[in-house]
Each structure stands twice: as structure tokens, then as C-alpha cells.
Write a structure and sequence with these properties.
mainly beta; six-stranded mixed β-sheet; four-stranded antiparallel β-sheet; globular
Length: 114
């Protein structure tokens, strides 16, 4: 059972930046397709950004050009660099497998406020 631990959230002003981190348990991390999620209207969570094991990326429309997903397989870690943050980015952010999420971690709270 893979477990995810997210960190890096906080309070930031509009236009600011945050870098979220997620570490995953297990020995096969390099083969995982990973993603960052947040709650969305009408669904439990939406994919904000995804990164496959071979480097393919996906971004939801509102994240394109502002967020960057990356990974460090040696550290079993996936990151989300969030720039030019907006009020509407306020949410709890979670990492999990890309498009087939399993058990969720506790998430990390991002609050964009002036």
C-alpha cells in the first residue's frame, strides 16, 4: 500500500509562489504516473497537474503556464511549483497516482489571500 505525504503549503499573497512536495512510500516510485489534485465543484477532486513515468505532463487549464510538476525518483518525491498564484488556487492539495488514485494523504493547505 503506497502512502503519500504532502508538504509545502502555506499562506501567500496573490501573485506569489509556493513549492509543494510529496513523498511516496514503496520501491517502485520511478514507475508511477503521479499527479497533484485539489477539490473541485461537482467532483471529489480534480487533477491539477500530472507527470507520467516517462516524462509526459498534463495541466488543467487554470494551471497551464503557472504551475510546473516535476519529480525526483531518487527521493521518491514529486513537486508542484506554483507561480502567480490566484485567490481561486486556495485549496488543500493532494498527490496520488495519475488518474487512478488510491488512499489519500492528509494534503497540504494552500491559502492565497491579501
Amino acid at each position: 500500500q503506497v502512502q503519500f505525504v504532502e508538504s509545502g503549503g502555506g499562506l501567500v499573497q496573490p501573485g506569489g509562489s509556493l513549492r509543494l512536495s510529496c513523498t511516496a512510500s514503496g520501491s517502485a516510485f520511478s514507475s508511477y504516473d503521479m499527479a497533484w489534485y485539489r477539490p473541485a465543484a461537482g467532483k471529489q477532486r480534480e487533477i491539477v497537474a500530472g507527470l507520467t513515468s516517462n516524462g509526459g505532463t498534463y495541466y488543467t487549464g487554470s494551471a497551464k503556464g503557472r504551475f510546473t510538476i516535476s519529480r525526483d525518483n531518487a527521493k521518491n518525491a514529486v513537486f508542484l511549483q506554483m507561480d502567480r498564484l490566484k485567490f481561486e488556487d486556495t485549496a488543500v492539495y493532494y498527490c496520488n497516482f495519475f488518474d487512478r488514485p488510491t488512499d489519500w494523504g492528509q494534503g497540504t493547505q494552500v491559502t492565497v489571500s491579501s
